[in-house]
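I hope you will forgive my troubling you with a question about protein structure. I set the record out below, with my sincere thanks for your time.
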Amino acid sequence: MSERKVSRRSFLGGAAAGAAAFNVITAPGLAAQRRAAAGSQQTGVAVLGGGVGGLTAAHELAERGFKVTVFEPKALGGKARSIPVPGTGTGGRKDLPGEHGFRFFPGFYKNVPDTMRRIPVPGNADGAFDNLVNASQEMFVLDSGQTWMLPSFDASGLSEGIETIVSAVGLGLQVPANEVEYFLRKMLVFQTSCDARRLGEWEQTAWWDYVNAGKFSAEYQKVFGNGLTKDLVAAQGKVASTYTIGLMGLAFIYSLLAESSADIQRQSGYGNADRLLNAPTNEAWIDPWVAHLRSLGVQFVEGYGASALQMAGDDVAGVTLTNAAGQSLTVSADHYVAAMPVEKARALFDAPVRQAAPELAKLDQLSYDYMNGIQFFLDQKLDRPVKGHVAYMDSPWSLTSIEQGLFWNRDLPSSYGNGKLADILSVDISDFNTPGILYGKSAVDCSKSEIFNEVWAQLKRALNADNNTELSDAMLIDWALDPAVSFPAGQPATSSEPLLINTAGSLGDRPEAATSISNLFLAADYVRNDINLATMEGANEAGRQAANAILSRSGSSAAPASLGTLWEPSEWDAAKRTDAARYAAGQPNLLDIIPAGLPL
């Protein structure tokens, strides 16, 4: 039995004729025969999707001697990729650098930074990781004109640091002091809750209900009940899982404290809380990553997406891939990694697949929403630049922004566009379903130009308060909305790249990376993972889990990929043990008991 060699030219020529077969490994069992004959760890893996999850799985497997081919229907990098604005570059400059949305690398990420350190970049001792730069400010803006900057904190102790940060956010945004105190108590309840309670009680509870937002002021609801969940994870507080929001809130606070405490930084392994890339995502990360994977032997086939899996008994025997023109090809491999988002995966996993892996049917219960970016290209910088993210707390569309020109190590006017580019205000739209201020319509009911006008108006209303003009129409060179947002005639706007939402109780519907099908694995952010949020970190972790499952099932002796986890300080271990006993006895957390006669 011999491996069939197929050149890229002949492969694509066959596909153009209407059908082709492409064997990563020509027959099941060939890899095992090779290992027996030569002690090789090579095997054939087809990775179906070239986003962060797929590239991570390919990276981990290629480093361990596996033969990997990545099939990507749209563009390598997935939602993390750069999306240049076609036709906007003149005089030898590159097109204006659009993005799906701005990239944000919190200090509590561990898996993505580890991958970045292993991507060589000339002149960088730590590879692509050295292309991360630290933000030094965070700002919250109210339409009343009040702006509040997150200050530096002295982490003399965890409890004191948490109280300082939460109080500063709440009081700075006009939340009554007694309500801030109550929210702090709820944060302590989550901190001291045992794992069983977090999964058995708080995972089933919506964040809005957990913090009793319905019983407090409009300011409390705006900041703690709904605002932070929308701005951070594009999820309404009334549906978001308390388990997810609690984990993320504490992780972000811990990373803020780690900035000023070497001891906390050493224990947690966390870096600066807010980090960004120093260039467009493809230039700083994705392009070097793909180049490195090619050097490791990974092959890439772009333009083809998985459309059907062929089952042979309880195993995958092959996969059909189709391009935009409807042309198809058949791929066979020893192992298959489905590395596409949940809305694509549940379409791929048809009845025969679900019969062999019943857990995949639960994907139909998962929810997703839109979180897409829009970039505003300016011919001058803002008068009061913020070296970090800005959250527009009164924005109906839950906008957040970053001035990318403050962080990129590029000469913008000579590098991009028509020579006039001075700054890029990159904005994420996290709420597509609330009426705006110009047209009284939600984003899904707007046209493309109306979305631009609405976002621009919301930004100006927040930034130009108190007779101070930060943004003016004269500054705007061009703008670009994420092309994933489309506008079908007579129908609401849709996004082909939505974001998984961790609704209360949804963890039980999310699968592991290793499925019941012996040669099918999952590498996407909906897979159960430690960070428990649809992020680049979650996708990376899932890719590592998929690689480790392939190592295990193929009998490889290679060391498994490392799995970074969220840090939990030991100060609350005793309280968690007490809570474990109380939870087992059906009793509430000790700190969650409100004395009789006291208002919430």
The radius of gyration is 25 Å.
